UniProtKB/TrEMBL annotation:
This is Tetratricopeptide (TPR) repeat protein. GO terms for molecular function: mannosyltransferase activity. It comes from Micromonospora jinlongensis. The keyword Transcription regulation does not apply. One of its GO terms (biological process) is protein O-linked glycosylation via mannose. Keywords: Repeat, TPR repeat.
Amino acid sequence: MLSTEADNKFAWFNLGFIAQSRNQPDEAIGNYDKALAADADYKPALYNKAIVLESKAPTTSIDIYRKLVSIDDKSSTAYLRLGMLLSQSGDEGAARDAFKAAIQLDKGLTSAVPAKYRATPAPRSSTPAGR
């Protein structure tokens, strides 16, 4: 099938996902790259490729997550994963911004954000109401 449809991003993505699930990172990356050759902005392939590269090539992974959120600024999990990598790289300010974006998009991600990056609520006044 792929010999006649070499630019079928969906098929290449699926093959990449299968390889990724079988812990075959190099094969997964190769298949994601073929999907991205057909469509450079194909979000599922970008996202999964970034995940595969997180431990092997974190800087490349960061670049991919940045591209992904520039294409889709509603990708809360991409912001979360970007924040994790930025934090590990020592870029505290950028990590804080990424985590803030993730939480603003999906409050359910708050518990996945390291505590030091979670916004602290404003202190409550100790004056009783009505005074």
